[in-house]
Amino acid sequence: MSRRRRVYEGKAKVLFEGPEPGTLVQYFKDDATAFNNKKKGTITGKGVLNNRISEYLMTRLGDVGIPTHFVRRLNMREQLIKEVEIIPIEIVVRNVAAGSLSSRFGIAEGTSLPRSIVEYYYKSDELDDPMVIEEHITAFGWATPQELDEILSMSLRVNDFLSGLFFGLGIRLVDIKLEFGRLYEGDEMRIVLADEISPDNCRLWDVKTNEKLDKDRFRRDLDRVEEAYQEVARRLGILPESGPRDLQGPSTIQ
Ligand code: TMP
């Protein structure tokens, strides 16, 4: 990994130049942050699990016709992705009240929402990712009205598909944060799902017990943080064969 040129480093991932033009290598770290970097820590094995979980979910989404940046997993912590121009908007789709929706409107966590609610946040660490409306997004040129239409309909499809997939595993998809990018191929441009889909950016609750199986365990100082990520991978059928002890293995093994 160190031989490659580093293109970008985020809080949970590093992007390196890929083997061919138009590709990047996405490396998953064990670092965890919350509240815009105010809380920092490590979740042992998270990078390995999120690499697998995101590979699995992006592949399934691709199977049902949702275009994504994912190409293939390279090793324990790295995956090959298509280079895209990230649209600086975080799309949050909510099915059940939790987190900032609950605190902002005083709605008890766990209250079912009458329909899925979509919110947009402007990606800016300096500004603390402020919530924005369509008017801001189009007026400030972050996305065109046509792009935003496509992003909204893709986000709802992703949410519906993943809600069903997780429900089959006894997990409720409470909410999810998505990011999209512009993929340029010759003269053509299309919007594709980017970033990652993992317990870092979804809320996942056990259907029977409401136990949290996501990064809220870290955000809220709950115990068994690592185990929550492992449990999601286990239910998806992708926990590395020899179990959690395998999770810190060398990053170059296929
Ligand atoms: P929120 O309730 O804190 O607004 O979070 C909504 C969803 O978005 C939740 O699944 C966690 C995810 N999320 C991120 O992925 N990144 C972030 O920076 C924040 C604030 C939330």
Key traits:
globular, 6 helices, five-stranded antiparallel beta sheet, disordered C terminus, alpha+beta, D-amino Acid Aminotransferase, Chain A, domain 1, binds thymidine-5'-phosphate, seven-stranded antiparallel beta sheet, 254 residues, 2 domains, Phosphorylase Kinase, domain 1
What does this protein structure show overall?
The protein is of the alpha+beta class and 254 residues long. The chain folds into two domains: 4-83 and 225-245, Phosphorylase Kinase, domain 1 (2-Layer Sandwich); 85-206, ATP-grasp fold, B domain (D-amino Acid Aminotransferase, Chain A, domain 1, 2-Layer Sandwich), CATH 3.30.470.20. Helices cover 28% and strands 32% of the residues. The protein has helices at residues 46-63, 99-105, 134-139, 145-167, 216-219, 225-236, and strands at residues 6-9, 13-17, 23-28, 31-34, 39-42, 70-73, 78-82, 85-86, 89-96, 112-122, 131-132, 171-185, 188-194, 202-206. Strands 8, 9, 10, 11, 12, 13 and 14 form a seven-stranded antiparallel β-sheet that branches. It has a five-stranded antiparallel β-sheet with strand order 1-2-3-7-6. The chain is globular. The relative contact order is 0.17. The model is unreliable at 249-254 (pLDDT under 50). It binds thymidine-5'-phosphate. Thymidine-5'-phosphate binds at residues 92, 98-101, 129, 175-177, 201-203.
